[in-house]
Design goal:
- This protein has about 450 residues and is mainly β.
- The protein has a single domain, classed as Porin (Beta Barrel), CATH 2.40.160.
- It has 5 helices and 23 strands.
- The strands form 3 sheets. It has a 19-stranded antiparallel sheet that branches.
- A hairpin with a 4-residue loop joins strand 8 and strand 9.
- The N terminus is likely disordered.
- This is DUF5723 domain-containing protein.
Length: about 450
Amino acid sequence: MKHNIKYILSVCIGIALTMGLSAQTLNSSYFMEKMTKRNQLNPALKTPNGYVSFPALGNFYLGVNSNLGLGTFLYPRGNELVTFLHPSVPADDFLGKLTPNNTVELDLGLDIISFGFWAWGGQNTFNLALKSYSGAYMPKEIFQFLKTGQKETGITRYDMSNITVSTDNYVELALGHARDINDKLGVGAKVKVLVGAAHAEARIDRMDISMSQDEWFIKQAGHIQASSLLKLETDPETGEITDYDTGDFGVAGFGLGFDLGATYELIDNLTLSAALTDIGFMQWNNLTRGETDPTKEFRYTGFDNIGAEDDEEGNNPFDDKADELGDDLEALAKFYKSDSQSVTNSLRTTMRIGAEYSILDNHISFGLLSTTRFGGHRTYAEGMAAVNFRPLSALHITLNGSVSNMGSSVGAILNVCAPGFNLFFGTDYFATKYSKQFIPINHARANFCFGINFTFGKKHEI
């Protein structure tokens, strides 16, 4: 299994780095009135003017989201760093930094073509983008097994199920419309057509380990699957997957998604808003799939005949037992090609609820934003507080602080919004403690967004 997981992990990372592109934008921009991309957070949010993006630079996004950091795995001991496996690192210190589900996610993004214009009673938007989401999801038990192993007495059991490495990559075409129903209520909606580019997943569906003084027992089941970008090589007689190679780019699937949103001015200067984005599905077609043999299991009761001499034919009972042990472990880790199939996954549906109160003739406002992502392998929840400064019509700045089930952070975004031109850059998550190699120590949560757009047309009230 070690080699199979290594193969799929390398492919997933390769896909993410070479074509991992997604049309995301910063939560910090939710309350920025002239931010051209905030309709991606809530389709009811409008901008005063029409806009057109600079091709391929209208919105570039890079994000890493994790509840793990460098300080989770490395510990200072004198003038050197040691890993969590070092005997000087207490198990409780290391395991106390982990959660039941440990996550590392990578989002990379790019808008290819994007524009918006006012017509038909509201603002209309068009966006063609590349999207990618890659992640590794690991239960706490896998690290506990590595650190503590078998207890001195009794039976030690580990459940290391649902270890997953995956990547999804697709092209998204989104059409949106936002309009005011009356002077208080505004609504918006988007429809998204998705064309799959690449998908890969390696997953240990179940792994049960039982360890005692007399016996070790391991039973597991897992699978790997991939679109045509990954070609799995198999033994023609047994169907065993022996290697992988890069395949061909092509249409790997189709999907459909929707965004829905609304805003409501409750009282003067206080606006409430809510949205559901990425409601829908993605279907991956003709996936090459491999599965482990569910009947295989590993049972180890110790070595006999230690120190035994070779028999007349030169065979050694201890060596034979060691070879048998190796064969059993190898059989447990083999994947066998199964029939190609289609898989339908839900999109990463996200709910946002916001409230904004403005003062000083809207030159300053205070915002609260709740974000909950339901789709994917893990539910994500975040609360963000933002202060929005609009000292000039052509300059808007937002500072924020956030708390989530992946950690806490601070961020900022600047939007230069002079007539005819719009430039923005910023981050939601700025780590405050880094290593010398600029790696976040506590939690690897960081993102960056940058975009150049051009505005046009009559200014509208929003």
